Amino acid sequence: MTLREKTGQLNQRMYGWDAYRRTPDGGFELTDALYAETERFAGLGALYGLLRADAWSGVDHATGSGVSDGAELAHLVQRHVVERSRLGIPALFVEEVPHGHMALDGTVLPVNLAVGAGWDPGLYERAAAHAAAELRARGGHVALVSALDIARDPRWGRTEECFGEDPYLAARLTEALVRGMQGAPAEYFPADKAPVVLKHFAGQGATVGGRNSAESELGLRELHEIHLPAARAGIRAGAAAVMAAYNEVDGVPCSGNRALLHDLLRERWGFQGLVMADGLAVDRLARITGDKVSAGALALGSGVDLSLWDEGFTQLEAAAERGLVSEAALDEATARVLRLKFRLGLFEQPYRTCPLPPPAVGRDLSTALARAAVTLLRNDHGVLPLSPATVSRIAVLGPHSDTVAHQLGDYTAPQRPGTGTSVLDGLRKLAPAGIDIRHARGCALTGGDLSGLPEAIAQAAASDVAVLVLGGSSARSTGTEFDANGAARTAVSEMTCGEGVDLAGLRLGDAQYALLDAVVATGTPTAVVLIQGRPHVVPDTAAALLTAWYPGPWGGEAIAEVLLGLAEPAGRLPVSVPRSAAQLPVYYNHKDTEYGGYVDDSAEPLHSFGHGLSYTTFAYGPPRLSEHTVEADITNTGRRHGRSVAQLYLRRLRTPVWPRTLELHGFQAVDLAPGETRTVAFPLGAGLGSAVPPGTVVEFRVAASARAALTAVPTQSFTAPEETPL
Fold first, then answer.
1. Are 538 and 471 in contact (CB under 8 A)?
2. Which SS3 state, helix, strand or coil, does residue 435 take?
3. 103 pairs with which residues across the strands?
4. DSSP letters spanning 107-150
5. Got the DSSP string for 47-73?
6. pLDDT tens digit string along 484-528?
């Protein structure tokens, strides 16, 4: 291959939606922009977002490809690329699959934070497999999926893309993601499986102040203990690629960090897959190197194989001629790109697709994930579940009560009218006959307009119970202004979360608090449902409080099932919920200090990591430690069938370095009938792949949350005589 051809294989310069346009007869035609790009590089290495649809790309149902013609479009572009390549090299079609394929008519799943709240890797694995099959059926090849960011500051707008604040939980869900999308480790990918690019490597969830793309002030121990285990687990599961993050670690941006991308990832971990840079991250390195040519050289030399929209990588031929990069480095990166294409079978079958999986299966999986995520945080006096024996009139109120658009989260394609179920829809559909369901919006998500309060107050006062649906939104519209990488620059009025939408505080819109106060003041028992992409601060005034995160299109139905007692509230918090932003950080696995409280407020979160109530009660017996297992008995002490998530926490009592208060090292969901007792067993040695150094004294605790674990009966402590894997 020539230098020009190699450079072309390492580039992903153009936006895929610029490669085509609709014709008057409803077909597609290729654009001059695509012709120029393939001519420039004598082919095309990869094309991003050919099937993407959203406000940034400007693609909608009138201009983009739907489920019936996505593969047709992909084949049209691929045919052109192969014909323009001297060696007949096909392109990789790279697509966003953050919570379902981000394409028209794709199945939208709940966001990652909701998946984290489900604590169910098996269910997530099945949903990921469905998303991969949809991607491949449409002609896409590679899935970009957020998995590696750990939510350490909920002010960050991308908190919704995290599985939570804990590395162990994130690691287990990342493994499930890789297994679901890629299948069992093998040399070649089946037709319905897609190689995964795990985003973002590494430490992006710990940026200063929760500000997008800011610096991450991380020591090496914090990086390795908190921010790398999910990546390590994903790579051990066989992940095909990782994406270098925007942030810097100790002054070195990830996309130019050879110690991270080469010394650690390739040399120590033995990773042989692809490293992709995040969008325009390579060009940012020019701040260090002086120009984009040397920026591209730095990224390549640091371990980046494939760029995204950058100019710097288009100049690698010039960089080689200037002696800034070796041809051997170009060869290594090119080989990794080509190997992924071979593993996909593109050279033998460049137009290969698989049958489209049944949409009904996708809907069922999305609803199941949403149902598993609904988390009951408070339930005073047993207000929930709503019973027809005591409830005949329900007031469904709030800005989220009758909307689906704000349930979806960021990175979501436009939905066809009528898709999905709001909370109001779900209650009307599922409530027993004879229950009168009333509705009033009350207020908007943002702002202080109180004109809708009188109607909402009247409906609440005339009802037996009020369901008040509040929260935030990551929904983008054509009015959103975007940065060059697609992050929101100026959020539209109701957008309070998502990429580029960071908050200084964690309050809801002012009118939402006024609505909450007014409804509670009527004396009608009130259940608040939060639909959100991050924890928000909500006064502890309503009788019941649930959070569903962004539950996807059919989340309203899942929420209604839980409210009515048709399903148990199975979710558990994947993040700690603060009392105010002034407390931050409040994650549970902080260093174990004997000080650190505030004089003017509690330093403890309002609700701790792992917390979640059921409609029944559970008792945890003392844990028992054998040589390789921790066991505990759990009993359903209530009158309903229920589900508890038993959580195993490690506490280091004496250790060579200052320990954390607690560390999650296992979890199991257990379903129990009233009065039933079951023993849960946690095998040791199946944890993070870390080790307890010799002489370390540790104990284990089994409890229903991190806060409960602090007071739970521990196992007998033991001293590690030698390096002990956990």
1. no
2. coil
3. 52
4. PPPPPHHHHHHHT-HHHHHHHHHHHHHHHHHTT--EEEEE-S--
5. EE-TTB-STTTT--TTTS--TTTHHHH
6. 999 998 877 889 999 999 999 999 999 999 999 999 999 999 999
